[in-house]
Design brief:
The chain has about 170 residues and is mainly β. Helix content is about 10%, strand content about 70%.
């Protein structure tokens, strides 16, 4: 019993030590989710860089898969503001805000020339949302994020889940 208590205490101390040392911490990993504009899946990669405990930048790139004859390339630059809920810092909630660039492709078949025709709409916009993260170990973080993407003619709700390697 004494060994178990000492092991748990040591784990909590070690967890607290790496959770508080976040300046310069980086993470990288994939995200998968749902994009409401064309009711399709989205997949991408995200990178984060922590400037301190409560501020980090998170650039992302992604691909919205074709559905309803629309697909897109998405690039975001978000600022995240994590708040840790427990002493060990393994669970956090973070609001986010940022800018986005989307390139939507619309595909249709032209009866006149009997070919597939694609048009592109490139737009800048804004993101606002929140996320939840679970720090599984010193080098592994799981996240769940929901955001509203405000882009002219293409505004959407985006929900993603991700896994990141922390280094």
């Amino acid at each position: 019993m004494k060994k178990i208590i000492l092991s748990i205490a040591a784990a909590m101390v070690c967890t607290a030590a790496w959770a508080d040392n976040v300046t310069g911490e980086k993470s990288f990993g994939p995200k998968l989710g749902y994009y409401s504009h064309n009711k399709s899946a989205v997949a991408g990669l995200t990178f984060t860089y922590a400037f301190n405990r409560h501020f980090r930048l998170a650039p992302e790139v992604g691909c919205v898969f074709r559905h309803n004859d629309q697909d897109a390339f998405v690039a975001d630059l978000n600022a995240q503001f994590p708040f840790k809920f427990e002493e060990a810092g393994t669970v956090a909630l973070y609001p986010l805000a940022g800018i986005t660039y989307t390139s939507w492709s619309r595909h249709f078949r032209s009866a006149e020339i009997d070919k597939d025709v694609t048009t592109h709409d490139n737009r800048f916009g804004a993101n606002v949302g929140a996320g939840f993260e679970l720090r599984c170990s010193e080098t592994l973080r799981l996240s769940l994020e929901a955001k509203y993407v405000l882009v002219k003619s293409y505004s959407s709700v985006v929900v993603t889940a991700g896994i990141s390697y922390v280094f």
